[in-house]
Structure formats: structure tokens, C-alpha cells
Amino acid sequence: MKSSVRKMFDEIANRYDFLNHTLSCFQDILWRRSCCRELKRQTPGKRLLDLCGGTGDFAVTYEKFNGKPDIAVLGDFSFGMLKGAVGKKMTAVPVQLDAMKMPFGDASFDVVLNGFGMRNLSDAEGGLRESARVLADGGYLQVLEFFSPRGTFNKFFYKRLAPLFIPVLGAFFSKREAYEYLVNSVLRFLPVADFVALAEKNGFELVHVKPCFFGVAFRVLLRRRT
Q1: How far apart are the first and last CA of the chain?
Q2: How far apart are CA 73 and CA 54, in angstroms?
Q3: Which residues lie below 8 Å from residue 92, measured CB to CB, with a gap of 6+?
Q4: Among the listed residues 169, 13, 173, the one whose alpha carbon sits nearest the alpha carbon of residue 78
């Protein structure tokens, strides 16, 4: 991961949760809850990694719906983000790491969460391959992400509306450049269908894809092939 991107996340960490909730009209909270309810129905194992986990909101939500894991790690490349998790009620231990080369053995986890982190990796395929490596056979990768828009509403939102209001709000409350990066990172990322195809090529089978708010985001649940 580029050091400039890490520095950017360090700089916005203290306002990250507030702006995530505000910019999504608190929908991001509901999306995480839906992801964790779906995982509960899959009866996953008890070893959790919240990858690209930022300040730990996904890990906190997971524990509310699935109970305390036997092993839980909150992994992120930004130390500033991990500091933002201090004081939150969760079992996960914060670890600063590179999602492309994680310091864990093969099959170390039963569930890997990734909320809005895949598009920040320098190589999505490498990130999927590494996630598959640390997952046990039959384990789950739950991705919540903004994918490159393909539908009419999505294109209008990300190419017309988002560039107008997201950087402006970011400038008012935090750092304009970071929220310009957010919009541009979505436009540069893969469409959801291409992401699923890439996952299937790298050790996963698709459980389901579900749109959030007319496809502004997607919940993609994948299972590590046995």
C-alpha cells in the first residue's frame, strides 16, 4: 500500500466514523448489520479477522450478532485508524499489517470481514488470494464495498452527485483530498460482477451478492472452496 494513502487515512482517522455515518445517512451501520446477520445464518467458526478494519465497526457489529470469537484480530495498515478502535467493545486485537502479505499462517481464520477496503488495495486479485490463504476451507469472506458503477442510478450517483457533495462535506469536517480520493477510488475499481469472477478464480465460490441502496454499495458473501 502506498505510504501516501496510509498517511491520508492516518490524518482523517479522528473523523472517520462520523463522516462514514453522515455521508451514508447512517446506512453503513445497517449494511454491516445485514452482513453479520447473514453470517450468523451460515454458522461460521469462531476465528475472526476484520481486514482493512479501520476503527473496528465491522468487528464490533459481528460480535453483537455472532458472539465473541475465540480468536479475533482487527487488521489495518493505518495506525491512526487502529487507534480509533480504542475503547470500543470488542474482542478483536488491533494489528497493523499489510493486507497483501499478512503475518498469519494458512487457514488461521474462519471468517474474514472486509468493509470498504478492497478497492484501496494496490491489487484486488492479490488481496483475494491472500484472504483465501488465511481462511480455513469452507470459511467465509464477507465483503462490503462500493464497486465501479454500471447501472443508470449508480452512474448518476457516482459521476454526478458524489463528486459535488462528498468532497465538500469532507472539506468541511475533515480533509477534502481524502474524500475526492474516495469518489475516484470507486470509479477506478472493478464492477461487482468482475470482482466476483476474480474471487472465483482465486479460491472462492459465491454464496450471494446483494445490493445496498439501489446498488450504491454491495454485500458480497464468498466461501473458501474446500
Answers
A1: 30
A2: 12
A3: 48, 50, 53, 56, 59, 69, 72, 73, 74, 85
A4: 13
| Rama region for 61: left / alpha / beta (φ>0; ψ in -120 to 50; rest) | alpha
pLDDT tens-digit map of 56-100: 999 999 999 999 999 999 999 999 999 999 999 999 999 999 999
Q: Which domains does the chain have, with CATH numbers?
A: 3-148+190-224 (3.40.50.150)
pTM of the model: 0.93
Beta-carbon contacts of residue 135 (< 8 Å; ≥ 6 apart): 107, 109, 110, 112, 141, 224
Angle at which helix 27-41 crosses helix 57-66, to 10 degrees, equals 40
Half-sphere exposure of 117 (CA within 13 A, CB side): 30
CA 115 to chain centre: 2
Beta pairing partners, 154:
none
Write the pLDDT tens digit of every residue in 120-176. Answer: 999 999 999 999 999 999 999 999 999 999 988 888 888 888 888 788 877 777 788
